[in-house]
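RECORD TYPE: inverse folding
INPUT: structure tokens
STRUCTURE:
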């Protein structure tokens, strides 16, 4: 039952070097509304994940471009198996699965991309029960701009820029953070420009719409772009090609200042151990300053800028105001600053400290570096040999490409610091994430990944819009007004979710059981109700049987039965002697007396002969109550009143019968009157007993009669005719309490 309140999502990040599984969990929006505070209502859904829920395998999906039939069993299946370990079985059909490929797949020909995505969707649909209603939406090669936008959502979500804007005021009404990402094949940037730049470059921005828990839409205008081929691996390939162009084609050895001194590798980065290799080799010289100079041209700063301003490779980017635009960097920005160079405890990025660490490391002989490898810590020699190039590339992209101020340097002749950058420098040490740049891996224990941004968007799309107004759906698109009836751009990409609850078969529906709650206060759906009913009925049945067996075991001895009978008999005698106190129904036999008679046998009382209650037969569709006149008397009832009333009932059924405040007990008569049509017969008692009429003022009805156990003549008693045979009653019950019908008040 506890799993009913949670939603799950699975997303596969198909990168260039491998595919990583991410699992996210969040509370069902319909249930999260229960007891939500004012702050929570104005916030986005709260997503959770755990380290154990992630798994990465190598190589990437793009390596299956020419063997698409193997991508399922040889690559995806192990990730699927890992996901099934944590997602409850009853939630799998309601759990969406996404595979979104990035730069590695973007480099493949369009034909191979299409073949791979079709095969992946077919495999997931055939071998899993995850929710996958739309192949094009769930399995796709996403653009770099989309990847950057998802990363921007994830960063601001974790930092609190969305839910607590008042605590993240950077000045000029700005409260969000910029996002930088660098992988193996591409690099992305995403940020919200200041108000001036946003107005100037409105057509270049993306309209992003989210939805808070109370159903309110929240919009942001974000710029995002990507540099394909500017990831560290692709940049390394371009760098090696530049070395080949720099030296004569006859050279078999190429000096490489970006490799540690003494390290020899092939052009592909494979270490060389022979003295006379057959192919061209790279020889490390360990000169980091020269490495910076040789990698700088790869930024393409000399490319023409057709839409000013531009940053890298002639691509347009609105001017960045570092007074309010503070960036976090993930992936290679983190690994390259906190990998082999240490700095894992650094709270912020300091250019001076970082550059010194890199120079000290890269100037070492390779033999000294390799001697520090610890097999127990699983050091990767490849990371060590590529660390110097990655560091130089990061420094160039970050500072010369994007223009992030070099924190820690007092004299910066090569950088023209703006007033905004100076303001960032002044406050960098006191405001944490307000540094112009800070590499991060996790925030509040959650890994910063663009996949989180995608799932935040999906979860926000499950929240019902306020007052059912779905004119503002969750998603993103161009920052223009669309031509459709809804207020969305024509190229709007929806979140892929629906705010209507989902049945197990994947069909959307409205919950019709919103008023029912489980033990935790959450609404129950129909399946919950049925499951609870089955559980409770089964448990109740076994409890009843156990209690019945216990009572039968206790009554197995005669002395116990007689002891209980004596107590019951004493109580019923007091009942009969005080009818006004005990017997408000005016009946001369109590239910307890009947029970003792059945359990312990009959016993004559001083009040007259013994008798028993006999059920009368009648048609259920004839039970209708008639009008009853109110009694003009005091309303009190006595034996004397009963005797005189019963003897006159045969001739005065319409006058004497029913003289009580309330409804009198109906009688079976052949003509009209109050009792007509009821199928019952009222018989007067003999020997000082009480009649079945109630004149105490209670609204009652009885579907039985009092009958003497003495032989009766065919003429009946008191002039009233009726059936005499007990066998003639089809409704007679055989249980000890079967002769007593509950009083039905109307």
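DESIGNED SEQUENCE:
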């Amino acid at each position: 039952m506890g799993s009913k309140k949670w939603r799950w999502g699975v997303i596969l990040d198909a990168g260039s070097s491998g595919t990583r599984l991410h699992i996210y969990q969040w509370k069902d929006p319909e249930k999260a509304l229960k007891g939500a505070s004012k702050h929570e209502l104005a916030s986005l859904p709260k997503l959770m994940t755990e380290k154990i829920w992630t798994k990465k395998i190598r190589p990437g999906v793009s390596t299956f471009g020419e063997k698409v039939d193997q991508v399922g069993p040889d690559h995806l299946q192990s990730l699927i198996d890992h996901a099934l370990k944590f997602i409850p079985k009853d939630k799998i059909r309601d759990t969406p699965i996404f595979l979104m490929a990035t730069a590695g797949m973007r480099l493949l020909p369009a034909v191979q991309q299409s073949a791979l995505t079709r095969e992946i969707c077919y495999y997931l649909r055939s071998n899993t029960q995850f929710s996958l209603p739309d192949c094009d939406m769930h399995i796709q090669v996403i653009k770099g701009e989309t990847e950057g936008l998802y990363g921007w959502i994830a960063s601001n979500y974790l930092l609190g820029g969305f839910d607590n804007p008042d605590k993240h005021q950077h000045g000029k009404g700005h409260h969000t953070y910029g996002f930088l990402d660098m992988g193996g094949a591409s690099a992305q940037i995403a940020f919200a420009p200041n108000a001036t730049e946003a107005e100037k470059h409105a057509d270049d921005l993306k309209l992003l719409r989210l939805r808070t828990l109370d159903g309110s839409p929240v919009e942001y205008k974000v710029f995002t772009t990507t540099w394909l081929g500017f990831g560290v691996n692709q940049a390394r390939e371009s760098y090696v090609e530049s070395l080949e162009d720099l030296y004569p084609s006859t050279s078999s050895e190429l000096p490489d200042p970006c490799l540690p001194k003494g390290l020899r590798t092939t052009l592909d980065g494979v270490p060389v151990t022979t003295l006379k290799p057959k192919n061209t080799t790279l020889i490390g010289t360990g000169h980091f300053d020269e490495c910076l100079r040789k990698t700088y041209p790869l930024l393409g700063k000399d490319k023409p800028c057709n839409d000013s301003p531009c940053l890298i490779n002639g691509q347009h980017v609105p001017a960045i105001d570092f007074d309010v635009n503070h960036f976090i960097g993930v992936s290679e920005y983190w690994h390259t600053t906190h990998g082999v160079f240490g700095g894992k405890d650094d709270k912020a990025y300091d250019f001076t400290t970082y550059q010194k660490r890199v120079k000290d490391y890269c100037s070492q002989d390779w033999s000294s570096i390799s001697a520090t490898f610890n097999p127990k810590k699983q050091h990767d020699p490849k990371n060590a040999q590529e660390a110097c190039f990655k560091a130089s590339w990061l420094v160039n992209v970050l500072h010369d490409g994007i223009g992030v101020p070099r924190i820690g340097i007092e004299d910066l002749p090569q950088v023209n610091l703006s007033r905004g950058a100076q303001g960032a420098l002044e406050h960098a040490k006191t405001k944490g994430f307000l540094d112009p740049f800070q590499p991060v891996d996790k925030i509040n224990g959650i890994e910063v990944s663009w996949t989180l941004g995608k799932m935040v968007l999906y979860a926000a799309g499950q929240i019902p819009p306020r007052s059912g107004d779905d004119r503002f759906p969750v998603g993103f698109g161009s920052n223009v007004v669309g031509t459709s009836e809804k207020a969305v751009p024509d190229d709007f990409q929806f979140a892929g979710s629906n705010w209507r609850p989902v049945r197990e078969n994947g069909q959307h529906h409205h919950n019709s059981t919103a008023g029912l709650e489980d033990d935790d206060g959450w609404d129950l759906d129909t399946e919950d109700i049925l499951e609870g009913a089955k559980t409770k009925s089964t448990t109740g049945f076994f409890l009843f049987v156990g209690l019945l067996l216990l009572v039968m075991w206790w009554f197995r001895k005669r002395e116990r039965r007689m002891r209980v009978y004596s107590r019951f008999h004493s109580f019923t005698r007091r009942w009969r002697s005080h009818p006004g106190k005990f017997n408000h129904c005016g009946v001369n036999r109590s239910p307890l007396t009947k029970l003792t008679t059945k359990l312990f046998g009959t016993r004559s009382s001083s009040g007259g002969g013994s008798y028993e209650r006999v059920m009368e037969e009648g048609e259920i569709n004839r039970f209708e109550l008639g009008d009853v006149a109110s009694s003009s008397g005091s309303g009190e009832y006595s034996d004397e009143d009963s005797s005189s009333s019963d003897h006159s009932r045969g001739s005065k059924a319409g006058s004497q019968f029913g003289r009580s405040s309330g409804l009198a007990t109906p009688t079976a008569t052949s003509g009209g009157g109050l009792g007509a049509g009821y199928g019952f017969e009222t018989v007067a008692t003999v020997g000082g007993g009480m009649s079945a009429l109630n004149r105490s003022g209670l609204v009652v009805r009885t579907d039985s009669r009092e009958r003497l156990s003495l032989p009766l003549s065919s003429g009946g008693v008191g002039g009233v005719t009726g059936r005499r045979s007990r066998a003639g009653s089809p409704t007679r019950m055989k249980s000890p309490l079967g002769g007593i019908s509950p009083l039905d008040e109307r």
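NOTES: The CA atoms of residues 215 and 465 lie 4 Å apart.
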